[in-house]
Amino acid sequence: MISTNQSGYYRTGFKFICCRKINIKNFLLNNLKEENRYYKYDFTLDNCTTRLRDILKKQHDSTFTKTAVMPAGTTFRNAIHIYLNNNKQYWSKLGIDILLGSPMDKEMTTEQQEFLPDNLMNSLDSSKQRMIVSTQNLYTINNNNNTKAFFTPFVIFSLLLFAVIGLGFVKNNFVQTSLNGFYGLFYFVLGTLGIVLIFMWSCTDHAMCKNNYNLLWAIPIHIIAAFFINSKKTWVKKYLTLNIILQALLLVSWFFLPQQMNNALLPIVLLSIYISYKKGFAADLPASGR
Q1: Which residues, 6+ apart, have CB-to-CB distance to 109 below 8 Å?
Q2: Lowest pLDDT segment from 52-61, 162-171, 269-278
Q3: Residue 214 above 50 pLDDT?
Q4: 3: three-class secondary structure by DSSP
């Protein structure tokens, strides 16, 4: 088995009696046939690692999957976060947290922990019948950069929030016109993202994309409201008022939702509130310029 982590790539050798080696070889050859080689991929429940686990279970005592390799109560999202944080992949972490919904926050069983290659290898190595006989380092990743990343999503979005609020006080017609365009673009992006999340939830078979609480801030109908964000119509003000209320409730319940939200999105929620207030309640304030 070839596995990888933040330090490099490894090849693992397994211990099997002759007949089981033959059975595994025959299974793999059969799996290469055109009618068998394709399957419906699932990010956590049916991926390349779980397929290997299932093959080994069929050819070996299934008790090897009884060894937990992560603390009790660990969720799928927790496991992914450990990998991404170790590799400082904060933007990938944000994308995964946005796309994958509350099913990712379910506690994993011992067997489900093995959806990650390293977890499967550790489980096999710590089982009663130790199946790993050798581990060969194929390639070492030289990661000497121990400095903490600065331009994380939280920092970038926070700077955006402060910049928009700060520019809101600039009494210049060009600046204010540019901000009005940004407000519409911001809502359009949120609405587009919401439509993508709805599509992944309802139009695909990816179970982990369902019940996504990110739709509380990435509201699909924003894509329509974006074209009226600078309008003074009564219904626009009511819509923006409802958005303020919804986003405020989201902030209050942020750490209590069934889905773990990515804290980098907090500035985005605050920016949504600010824009709704700016256009819904402060739109009549003079913004004279020279």
Answers
A1: none
A2: 52-61
A3: yes
A4: strand
